[in-house]
Structures are given as structure tokens and as C-alpha cells.
Design a protein that fits this description.
Layout: E1 14-18, E2 27-32, E3 39-43, H1 56-59, H2 62-65, E4 75-77, E5 87-89, H3 92-110, E6 115-119, H4 125-138, E7 144-146, H5 153-163, E8 181-185, H6 189-192, H7 197-205, E9 209-214, E10 226-229, H8 235-248, H9 254-260, E11 261-262, H10 264-271, H11 276-283, H12 287-299, E12 304-307, H13 309-312, H14 317-330, E13 340-343, E14 362-363, E15 367-368, H15 372-382, H16 396-404, E16 410-414, H17 418-421, H18 425-434, E17 437-442, E18 454-457, E19 466-469, E20 474-478, H19 491-501, H20 513-524, H21 536-542, E21 545-546, E22 573-574, E23 593-598, H22 614-617, E24 624-627, H23 629-634, E25 642-647, E26 650-658, E27 666-670, E28 699-706, H24 708-713
Parallel strand pairs: 6-7, 6-16, 8-9, 8-12, 9-10, 11-22, 12-13, 16-17, 17-18, 23-27, 24-26
Antiparallel strand pairs: 1-2, 2-3, 4-5, 4-18, 14-15, 19-20, 20-21, 23-28, 25-26, 25-28
This protein binds ligand MGD (2 copies), iron/sulfur cluster (SF4) and molybdenum atom.
Molybdenum atom (MO) binds next to loops.
Length: 714
């Protein structure tokens, strides 16, 4: 372990913060102890989201912060940037001088857009805002995007199409216990947002029915009254059968549909051929189950539908999400206590991270960068002419395509590990090799940093003050608990300094994150994600304010659409008739199974943090592929064998677990590892035409037996 951290306020023996991992953003208390670490983590009793509870990740969230591999000094690559080449440590002045002069030289040779930024959804609102502003104002480049593209983009596109606004959950967590019928589709809450489980249990106590829809029986489906075992890619087919019943049996809320929506005819038409009888033949889901769920949800007094990445991370992800939204709209389960839709946001600041300009087509406040009024407003706040603002860039994965095309020559990565988390990652490695300059700002030498020319030490969640917006749309304040180790710098200071070196410091004279937040609030004023009624004082005093909050007098908006007015031009919500389409890759003789990927309870995303947390790592050292017994039998798997998975992009060997609980067509592999354990070597980089979300959840694969002796011989 590294040396014990130094409290930002040395007089305090109890510090407050929030867990760095999922979107619940549980409060934590850091308590000074006599132990080796000097501090321990306890659940905070003072934050309304998860009073008194933390999951394993939260309890162990100090683990990576104090890890001996924490970077403490800038370092540069001595020779070519290749994994394994030696580093040389450097002071900040030299590092920033050289990085800025290389940026300038690249921009002089190839134009401003040759330098790009790749951000992340763990960063604070202030950092998300600053990265967007830095790219447009200091670099004057159009190329910024972030890992949230891999996460919330399909849900965002769907909510914008249906409601005109994208707030992950339309209802606060406190509404869950009031719901009488809860549909959880492609969301493994028990492992991914564990402290949300008590809300579901409270609903169950009030006799709510819970339905899960997933190709696996998960810890979440153990809470369910009905589990629908769905082959990946079939959500729209399945939901069409529910809508078929609701429409044909006249179970929809006619008054609500008539007064507040458009597009009913579209749905009636689209679901015609999806009777429970037909759909049960295609999916193996019993028709009685389809009818029970459709009638149950429609007739329930209140109901909530939650979706997550299971159905969103697909080339049809926007359409699948729209179809689940249809369920709520058609049955009038919107805008009242215990009723609504939610796409369960993933990362710590997965919600705020998508509102303030890290996305290729966005400006702060969820404004669109090609909207002249938005450009005018934001340019004014930033003190530049609107014509100076670049236009729309490209999505996260497409940035690597632009490197291959030779248009992008440099990249700054801050808050992501895209070599592990991007689809078809061998292609990403090839792109990173071509860069003239790759700067990674991280706490660790990540897999992505293996290709970096410069590696700069960033701040951890305990070392940087800021605000975040949790999955409910609650904006709250996270204080700075510790000093950064060694020479590591708070991320926002690094951005300021780099802007200064690039001659654009005048636009970045912030002396605290609070100053950034105040500007962010002004920039968001009048936008969809309007924070303009917020301030640090107000947020701290009320333990969070829900956006939209357009004025100091406005109470904030825990529950969206309460007056049934939506953010589309006609004020109505839009129903969408969905004609289900196939995934980008379907199975065939050579690749007869479906590979789907996802998460484990004890690891987080690319694993950069949790693989450096001994207490979590020891629970899952390597990824284990899950297959159905019928597959094991077909490939003649014997005790001790492993399996080889081969897709059109590559081939890897995994340990294997045989489980009745997975759909017989499907193999599941978690994605928290790099190198030879990295499932993203195999995943498909097909993107959704609108959201540009990669198809992480469905590709065609071959499964073969790989016996131990064979492996030992190689
Ligand atoms: N422990 C842990 N918690 C996390 C994270 C983590 O890495 N680890 N990451 C955070 C982040 S950033 C995110 S985005 C969230 C993600 O949270 P989730 O979306 O809940 O997590 P996943 O495991 O990716 O996928 C959820 C489920 O989708 C199922 N699935 C696969 N294909 C399909 C399909 O076609 N249809 C349906 N209906 N289901 C399907 C999978 O079997 C899986 O159980 O979790 C957050 N919380
Ligand atoms: N196959 C497959 N791939 C997936 C998914 C899937 O379901 N299947 N899910 C996708 C999803 S939903 C997501 S969200 C992405 C996420 O994928 P990544 O973006 O790779 O996620 P992280 O591992 O959180 O990477 C964050 C990095 O930033 C660093 N970091 C964390 N906090 C800070 C900070 O405050 N400052 C600085 N400077 N650095 C920081 C961490 O050390 C880490 O290296 O993965 C996607 N990839
Ligand atoms: S539920 Fe999420 S925020 Fe809460 S402790 Fe676990 S990982 Fe952290
Ligand atoms: Mo995510």
C-alpha cells in the first residue's frame, strides 16, 4: 500500500464523500483509524439515496486510491509509444511545455481538428463542462466524445424522440415503492446498482409484481415474480406482443393516449402480426406469460419500466428502448407517483456527464451544437464569437476511425480506458499506434496508456471537489477529502494549465470548481438540462437538487412530466411503432451462438480501479464464460476444460461455468479485463445508425472445447 492519504482538512477525523462507482452515488464517510490505511469507509447516514448501505465496491472504494501503482509524477515515453517501452519521469512544467508545443505543431501541420479529446462519465459536472469547453475554445477542435457514448446514448436518443428530453429516470427512487408493477428489462440492478434493491423490496412488501427480462437468470431476477428468458436481440419482438395484447384487448388508457400522445395508429399497425401465439413460437416464451404480463401491467394502478444496457447496447437499441417507453405511454403510467419510465444510468456521473458538452454534438445544458441559438448563448457565456465554435464531431468509436483515416493525429484521454472498453478493440489498438501524440490522464498506467507518449497523474474521486448528477437527476456536491498524492494535480487545474500553455488561458481562469459550476449554471440556462437555479450553497443545504431547475425559486424536478406536458414541439409524447430488425450479425453454421457481454458485482467497467482493489480482485481474478449445459454437451466439454470463443474479429480462451440459468443460444462474458482476457477483442463494432452505440450485447460466435493438456502444449 502507498502512504496513508492526507486529509484536505487536517483537523477532521470524519470526512464525507460519495462512492466513485455506480450511478446511485451512495454517500460514504471516511473515518480516521489506527489501521495501516489510516482511514476506513463507512456508509453515510446523511445522504438520502442509500442511507446506511454500501455494496462491496463502495466499502472497498479506498482500495485503488491508495494503491502503490498510483501515478505521482508526469512521465514520458523514452522511445516509440508501445506497451513495455520505458518511461522517464518529468516535472509538470516540462511536460506541459512539450505537450502544448506538440499540439501546436500538429495543428499547424494538419489543422485544429487533428487534436481530439476522449472523456468519461465518472468525471464531475465541472470536469465534463471543462473538457467540452477546452476542446472547443482552447484546442478549437470539433473532435470530442466520451465513454458515455458506449453507455447511455441509445437510451438518450430514445427519450429525446419520445419525450423531447433525456433524464435517465423520469421518477425519483422514492417512487419505486409506490409502483404496483415493475418491469426490469436488460437491467441487473442487484449487481449493478445494489443499493437500489431495498427500494424494490419495499415495493414487493406493498405487493408489487416484479418482472425481469434477460437472457440470464441474474441476482436481480431472483427478486422477480416472473422472469422472461429472452434470446438477446429479441426485446422489440417481445414488447410488440405485450402491446398487441394491450391494444387488441382495449387495455390502454384511452384518455391519456388521446390527450397527451401522438402516434397511436403507428403502434396499432406495427403490432398487428405479433400476437402472443406467434411470438411464443419465435421466442419460446409461453403465450400465457405474455398475456399475464401485458394484462398485469396495463391493469395495475401504478407501474414503472426500467431498462438498461442489456437491450440498449445494440444496433437496434434505440428502437428497443422506444418500445419499452410505449408500454408506459400507452397505459398512462407517466408523471404520477409510482409511475414512469427510466433508463438506469450507469456511471457515477453518467447523467451529468452527458449534459454539459462532452458529447460530439452538444453544448452545455443539453443544447445541440448545430442550433444557432444555442451557439449564440454559449459563445456569449464563453466570451467568444459564435463563428469561432467548431461544429459537430463524431462519436467515441468513430474517433478511432478518424485516426485510421489520418484526420486525427493526437488524442487526450481523461477518464476512460477505451482500449479495454471499446468494441473490436484490436482495431482501437491499431489506431492508437498511429497517433503522433497520445496523452493519457489517469490514476494508473492503464492498457490505453500502453500506447501513450505522455502519462499524466490525475486525481481520484476523493481528491477533487465537484458536483455529480445521479441516476435520478439529483445534482449533489462531493467535497474534496484528501490531497492528491505526490505531484498529482486536480484534473481541473491541469486543464487550466494546459489551456494557458496553448495561449488560451484567459478563458480558463478558475480558482475553484465552484467557479466552474457557476459558469456551467449560466451556460445551461434555458437549455433542457437547466441548472441555472442551483449553486453550491443551495445543493449542499438540500442534499441535492433535481434538474430542471431554471431559477433560484424553482424547487427542482424530482418527478418529470407531472403536468403531462412533454418537451416535443406539440407538447405531446410520441408513441413509436417498432418493426423489429435483426442484429448486425446473425448466427450461421460457422458462428452458431450468440455472445453477450456485461458486468459482475465486484468489478467495475474496464477494471482499471477494481482490479487494483485486492478485496474485490480476489472474488473474481479472471473472466469466466457462462454457457448452458446443452452447449457443454454438444462441444463435449470435460471437467477442467476451457472454451475457445471465436468471432469474425478474433479468438480467445476462457474459463467456463456451466449454468442452467442462461439461454441455450447464448454465452455471457464479463468485460472487466484487458489483454488476453479482454472480451472486446471479439465484440462487434457495428453502431446504431442514430445513437452510434456499439453492439456490445449481440454478436455471432463459435464455441469450442480447449482441453487443458492442449493449452499446456502451446
Ligand atoms: N458491479 C458493477 N456495477 C456497475 C458497473 C460495473 O461495471 N460493475 N457499471 C455501471 C455502468 S457504467 C453501467 S452502464 C451499468 C450497467 O448495468 P446493466 O445494464 O444492468 O449491466 P449489464 O451487465 O451490462 O447488462 C444487464 C443485463 O442485460 C442482459 N442482456 C444481454 N442481452 C440482452 C438483451 O438482448 N435483452 C435483454 N433484455 N437483456 C439482455 C445481460 O444478461 C445482463 O444481465 O452498471 C453500472 N454499475
Ligand atoms: N463488451 C462490453 N464493453 C463495454 C460495455 C459492455 O457492457 N460490454 N459497457 C460500456 C459502458 S456502459 C461503459 S460506461 C464503458 C466504460 O468504459 P471505460 O471508459 O473504459 O471505463 P472505466 O474503467 O471507468 O475507465 C475510467 C478510467 O478513468 C480513470 N479515472 C476514474 N476517475 C478519474 C478521475 O476522476 N480523473 C482521472 N483523470 N481519471 C479517472 C480510471 O482509472 C480508468 O482508467 O465501457 C463500455 N464497454
Ligand atoms: S451501489 Fe453504487 S454507489 Fe453505492 S456503494 Fe455500490 S457501487 Fe457505490
Ligand atoms: Mo455505462
Amino acid at each position: 500500500m502507498a502512504a496513508a492519504p492526507i486529509a484536505a482538512d487536517s483537523n477532521q477525523d470524519r470526512l464525507h464523500s460519495h462512492c466513485c462507482y455506480c450511478s446511485m452515488q451512495c454517500g460514504i464517510d471516511l473515518i480516521r483509524t489506527e489501521t495501516e490505511l489510516g482511514w476506513e469507509v463507512k456508509p453515510s447516514q446523511n445522504f438520502p439515496v442509500a442511507t446506511g448501505r454500501l455494496c462491496q465496491k463502495g466499502l472497498n472504494s479506498l482500495g485503488h486510491v491508495l494503491h502503490p501503482e498510483r501515478l505521482q509524477l508526469p512521465q514520458r515515453r523514452i522511445a516509440a509509444a508501445r506497451p513495455g517501452e520505458a518511461w522517464q519521469q518529468s516535472g509538470w512544467e516540462d511536460a506541459l511545455d512539450e505537450i502544448s508545443s506538440r499540439i501546436t505543431s500538429i495543428q499547424q501541420r494538419y489543422g485544429n481538428d487533428a487534436v481530439s479529446v476522449f472523456g468519461g462519465g465518472s468525471l464531475t459536472n465541472e470536469m465534463s463542462y471543462l473538457l467540452g469547453k477546452f476542446t472547443r475554445v482552447a484546442l478549437r477542435s470539433k473532435y470530442i466524445d466520451y465513454n458515455g457514448r458506449y453507455c447511455m446514448s441509445s437510451a438518450a436518443a430514445a427519450q429525446i424522440r419520445a419525450f423531447g428530453i433525456d433524464r435517465g429516470m423520469n421518477v425519483p427512487l422514492d417512487d419505486i415503492p409506490m409502483a404496483k408493477y415493475i418491469i426490469l428489462a436488460g437491467t441487473n440492478i442487484a449487481e449493478c446498482q445494489p443499493t437500489m434493491v431495498p427500494y424494490l423490496m419495499a415495493a414487493k412488501k406493498q405487493k408489487a409484481i416484479i418482472v425481469t427480462i434477460d437472457p440470464r437468470q441474474t441476482m436481480t431476477s431472483k427478486l422477480a415474480d416472473i422472469h422472461v428468458n429472452l434470446q438477446p436481440g429479441f426485446d422489440s419482438v417481445f414488447v410488440n406482443s405485450l402491446l398487441h395484447v394491450i391494444v387488441n384487448e382495449g387495455l390502454y388508457d384511452k384518455a391519456f393516449v388521446e390527450s397527451y400522445t401522438t402516434g397511436f395508429e403507428e403502434i396499432a399497425e406495427a403490432v398487428q402480426h405479433f400476437s402472443p401465439d406467434t411470438v411464443s413460437v419465435y421466442t419460446g416464451i409461453p403465450k400465457e406469460v405474455i398475456r399475464t404480463i401485458a394484462r398485469g401491467f396495463a391493469n395495475a394502478e401504478t407501474g414503472i419500466v426500467l431498462t438498461a444496457r442489456g437491450l440498449e447496447q445494440q444496433v437496434n437499441g434505440v428502437e428497443h428502448t422506444l418500445n419499452y417507453i410505449n408500454l408506459c405511454l400507452l397505459t398512462g403510467k407517466m408523471g404520477k407517483p409510482g409511475s414512469g419510465f427510466g433508463a438506469v444510468t450507469g456511471q457515477a456521473n453518467g447523467q451529468g456527464g452527458r449534459e454539459h458538452g462532452q458529447k460530439a454534438d452538444q453544448l452545455p445544458g443539453y443544447r445541440m451544437i448545430d442550433d444557432p441559438a444555442a451557439r449564440q448563448h454559449v459563445a456569449e457565456v464563453w466570451g467568444i464569437h459564435p463563428d469561432e465554435l467548431p461544429g459537430k464531431g463524431v462519436s467515441a468509436y468513430e474517433l478511432f476511425g478518424k485516426i485510421h483515416d489520418g484526420e486525427i493525429k493526437a488524442m487526450i484521454v481523461l477518464g476512460s480506458n477505451p482500449l479495454v472498453s471499446s468494441p473490436n478493440s484490436a482495431n482501437v489498438a491499431e489506431a492508437l499506434k498511429k497517433l503522433e501524440l497520445l496523452v493519457v490522464v489517469d490514476m494508473f498506467e492503464t492498457e490505453t496508456a500502453g500506447y501513450a507518449h505522455w502519462l499524466l497523474p490525475g486525481s481520484s474521486f476523493l481528491e477533487a471537489e465537484g458536483t455529480l448528477t445521479n441516476l435520478e437527476g439529483r445534482v449533489f456536491h462531493r467535497p474534496r477529502a484528501f490531497h492528491t498524492p505526490g505531484e498529482a494535480m486536480e484534473d481541473y487545474k491541469l486543464i487550466r494549465k494546459l489551456a494557458e500553455k496553448l495561449g488560451r488561458g484567459a478563458y480558463f481562469q478558475y480558482d475553484s470548481p465552484e467557479e466552474v459550476f457557476d459558469e456551467l449554471c449560466r451556460a445551461s440556462k434555458g437549455g433542457k438540462a437547466d441548472y441555472s437555479g442551483m449553486s453550491y450553497d443551495r445543493i449542499k443545504a438540500s442534499k441535492g437538487v433535481f434538474w430542471p431547475c431554471p431559477s433560484e425559486q424553482h424547487p427542482g424536478t424530482p418527478r418529470m412530466f407531472e403536468n403531462n406536458s412533454y418537451y416535443l414541439p406539440d407538447g405531446r409524447a410520441k408513441l413509436h411503432g417498432i418493426t423489429p430488425k435483426k442484429p448486425a450479425e446473425t448466427t450461421d453454421r460457422d458462428y452458431p451462438y450468440i455472445l453477450t457481454t456485461g458486468r459482475l458485482g465486484n468489478h467495475y467497467l474496464s477494471g482499471a480501479q477494481t482490479r487494483r482493489t485486492p478485496a474485490l480482485m480476489k472474488k473474481a481474478m479472471v473472466p469466466v464464460a457462462e454457457i448452458h449445459p446443452s452447449v457443454a454437451e454438444r462441444i463435449k466439454l470435460r471437467f477442467g476444460d476451457r472454451i475457445r470463443l471465436t468471432t469474425r474479429r478474433g479468438s480467445l480462451v476462457f474459463d467456463v461455468k456451466i449454468s442452467q440459468e442462461i439461454h441455450p443460444t447464448t454465452v455471457f462474458v464479463p468485460f472487466h479485463w484487458g489483454g488476453e482476457h479482454s472480451i472486446n477483442v471479439l465484440t462487434n463494432d457495428a453502431l446504431h445508425p442514430i445513437s452510434r452505440m456499439p453492439e456490445f450485447k449481440v454478436c455471432a460466435t463459435r464455441i469450442e472445447r480447449e482441453d487443458r493438456e492442449e493449452l499446456a502444449r502451446h
